[in-house]
Amino acid sequence: MEPQAPRPSSTDNWGRVEAAAKAALPLDIVEFIAECRQKPHPESHLIAVLHKVQERFGYLSVEKLDAVSQLLQVPAAKVTGVATFYHFFRLKPRGKYMINICMGTACYVKGSEKIANRIKEELGIDFGQTTTDGQFSLNAALCLGTCGLAPVVMVNDEVHPNVTPDQVPVILAKLRQKEAPAD
Length: 183
Ligand code: FES
Prior knowledge:
This protein is of the alpha+beta class. It has helices spanning about 10-25, 25-40, 45-55, 60-70, 75-85, 105-110, 110-125, 170-180, and strands at about 95-100, 135-140, 155, 160.
């Protein structure tokens, strides 16, 4: 019997790359990607895959994007392009508290810009940024769907209705208090 030819090194390399990509993602997401790859246009499932990864980790790191690219067999440039194009994908870790300030029409006419300015001043960050202690991230929303309560600020899942600029330090102080060690 003829001795078997050694596998091409590219195959060996793919094995290593695949193993590293699998290690970067949880098993259920690896399996979801494998299912997507069986379908006619795997790249059409890219957004769904990225949503799953972000739901699990809070943001899309370079390592995770690379793993998605390898396992879904979609070029890295395309994966990064989609992740950066859509505003709902985050490429940096978000703070423990995500503050969404509604800048939609109903909230804007009731002063949401002043609230935004006060929050920016208090936290020392702008929209799309996170405080250096990792506690707060700031985001401008277009409409949070509670226009009757305008102006609205949402902290994670909690809605703060009829917010005034003077309430901002109170809201932030309460959140910071939650973090303070008990006496
Ligand atoms: S415009 Fe602010 S909740 Fe709709």
